[in-house]
Amino acid sequence: MTITEHEARVAPEPIDTESTADTVDDAAVDAFGERMFASILGAVETMAVHVGGRLGWYDALSGGAALAAPELAARTDTDARYAREWLEQQASVGILTVDDPAAPADERRYSLPAHAEPVLTDRRNLAYIAPLARMFAAASQAMPGILDAYRTGGGVSWQQFGADARESQAEGNRPWFDAMPAVLADVPHVHEALSRPDARIADVGMGLGWSSIALASAYPQLRVEGFDVDTASVVAAGENAREAGVADRVRFQATDAAELAEHGPFDAIFAFECIHDLPHPVEVLRAMRDAVRPGGSVVIMDEAVADAFAPNAGDLDRLMYGFSLFVCLPDGRSHGSSAATGTVMRPDTLRGYAREAGWSDVRVIVPEFGFWRFYELI
């Protein structure tokens, strides 16, 4: 048999493109194309929101200010031509309003509507979500490393994501941490532990320290020990505590939470939105069990994702998969032998980690708190 004959025998059947095309629903193609186009437009808006936040343009436009491009540039020490393009883009998508669209380009005056200020500029408001744009911008800067990790099974560490990721997470969480003590006050045994004279608690993975500061501010006798492996976060958290006037009762250290038992015992231990990031969560949960006093509480705040995976998920799961794809999973896998949990940590996943660490079970004590829920290990 000749090579040509062999090729003829093993060659795949030709694809009938006309027949395949006949089976495709043109309306479905158009609808899916429109969905993808809308997603791309959303990505453009996200990048533009990041620019406006980082350059101080939204802040300059807040409070009813109506500014033309040269004025905005002068107030923020930025370039007027870029400012003009951004202002036009923001008005074109309906974020900003413009007084006289027909005026010459550099004379048009733009304003930030009052309803947009809590979302884009009010850093203590629960509606403030502008930092989400900054987080995904940080991920885009790390994209070459993320792609390499996807090919090799490696990771991209929190340190590699840089200040944008660290600061955006802290800014986005801060309003919720400010509100958190009032929520925990409705959980009697947790409130009792925090109210105990000279109570001492641990805040695992405290980041820039806003969770520790919020608890110390709400409970004047409370002493808080914060633990984080990111040195830059520890330094910034210390400065935040000093500015908040609680540095005499709040202390931060760059320590692996797996060593928590060496620093105990604690009346209560908290881990706010970090267990899913940990490369070795079982070790940390075991250390928590060894570090808490008998009868003390161990409380985990993590993402309030659905109990189980399902196609066509809700918005919260969709957002958390975004964080997982581009931040949390690459960070988790930047450490050896990582559990690789990812942001979408289902309740049964946490329950499995807890039982492996020697706990009996996990119960939900606050089912919904913004993007999160509170669990207690028992």
UniProtKB/TrEMBL annotation:
S-adenosylmethionine-dependent methyltransferase Rv2258c-like winged HTH domain ranges (all copies): 46-121
InterPro entries: Methyltransf_25, SAM-binding_MTase, SAM-dependent_MTases_sf, WH-like_DNA-bd_sf, WH_DNA-bd_sf, WHD_Rv2258c
Domain Methyltransferase as annotated: residue spans: 201-296
Location of region: Disordered: 1-21
Pfam families for this protein: Methyltransf_25, WHD_Rv2258c
Basic and acidic residues composition-biased segments: 1-10
Name used for this protein in its record: Transcriptional regulator
Source organism per UniProt: Agromyces rhizosphaerae
Classification lineage: Bacteria, Bacillati, Actinomycetota, Actinomycetes, Micrococcales
